[in-house]
Design brief:
The protein is mostly helical and 241 residues long. Helices cover 81% and strands 0% of the residues. The protein has a domain of 166 residues: Up-down Bundle (Growth Hormone, Chain: A), CATH 1.20.1250.20.
Length: 241
C-alpha cells in the first residue's frame, strides 16, 4: 500500500513538472530530490524509532506523514510552483522511509532464519504489485478527471482526440493553435486530475495506517537466552558418548 501511494507521486510529478511548470527532464529530476532526501532520512531513522516505540507506532506514523504530505499536495493549483512542492514532497518521502523500512524489518523479523530468503522474495514480489496497480487505478483517476475538465469548445475533432490522450499533446496543440484559453484549460484540467489522484493516494495511506495499527506488533520485550547450566552440559556430553 505504501508503494501504491508513492507511485502515484512518481507517476504524476514528472508530468506536472514538464507540462505545467515547463521544466526539462533534468529539472524534473532535480525537483524530486526533496522527496528522495526525505526518504533517505526516514529510512535512516526508522530503526532507532522502532527500537523505542515498536514497529506498530513507527509504521503507522509513517503512513500518517505520507497521508498528510499527499493531502497537502492535493491542494496544488496553477499558482503554486516549485516552492510549494518543496514543502510537501519531503514529508511524503519521510513517511515512506519510516513505513517501508520498518515494515520490511518487521516482516523479516517474524520469520525464522531458514525462511528469511523466501520471505524476502515474497516481500519483494508484493512490493512490485503496488506499481502496476497504481498505474492502472491512479492513472484512470487522473485521466478521467483531466478529460472531464477539458474544455474543447471550437477545437477540431481530430485535434481534440489527440488532446484527450495526454497533457503533453494538449499543451502542444494549444501552442500550435495559439490559444491561451485552451492552454489554460489543459493545464487546469491536468492539475485537477493530479489533485484527485493525490487525494486517492492519501486515502490509501490512511488505510495503511489503520492496518498497521491493527496488525503490526507493538514493542516486544527482548528476551535474553539464559546460558546453559554446567551440569546440563555434562549430561549432554555423556549422552553423546
Amino acid at each position: 500500500m505504501g508503494v501504491f501511494a508513492l507511485f502515484g507521486v512518481l507517476f504524476t510529478a514528472p508530468q506536472y513538472f514538464q507540462a505545467i511548470l515547463g521544466t526539462d527532464a533534468m529539472g524534473s529530476g532535480l525537483r524530486l530530490l526533496p522527496l528522495i532526501g526525505g526518504l533517505a532520512v526516514g529510512a535512516s531513522l526508522a530503526d532507532r524509532i522502532a527500537a523505542r516505540v515498536g514497529p506498530r507506532i513507527t509504521v503507522a506514523s509513517g503512513f500518517a506523514l505520507l497521508a498528510v504530505g499527499l493531502g497537502v499536495g492535493a491542494t496544488t493549483s496553477l499558482t503554486r510552483g516549485t516552492g510549494f512542492l518543496s514543502l510537501w514532497t519531503p514529508v511524503v518521502g519521510l513517511g515512506m522511509g519510516f513505513g517501508l523500512a520498518t515494515a520490511s524489518a518487521a516482516a523479516l523479523g517474524a520469520l525464522s532464519p531458514e525462511r528469511a530468503g523466501v520471505g524476502s522474495a515474497v516481500m519483494q514480489a508484493v512490493n512490485k504489485v503496488g506499481a502496476p496497480f497504481a498505474a492502472a487505478i491512479l492513472g484512470s483517476v487522473l485521466n478521467a478527471t483531466y478529460q472531464g475538465r477539458l474544455d474543447l469548445t471550437g477545437v477540431p475533432a481530430n485535434v481534440a482526440d489527440g488532446m484527450r490522450e495526454s497533457v503533453f499533446a494538449g499543451v502542444a496543440a494549444a501552442h500550435q493553435l495559439g490559444s491561451a484559453p485552451l492552454l489554460a484549460s489543459v493545464r487546469t484540467a491536468f492539475v485537477a486530475g493530479m489533485d484527485g489522484m493525490l487525494w486517492a493516494c492519501a486515502a490509501i495511506a490512511v488505510a495503511g495506517m489503520v492496518l498497521a495499527l491493527a496488525f503490526l506488533p507493538g514493542r516486544a520485550a527482548a528476551k535474553a537466552t539464559p546460558p546453559p547450566e554446567p551440569a546440563r552440559l555434562e549430561d549432554e556430553a555423556v549422552a553423546r558418548r
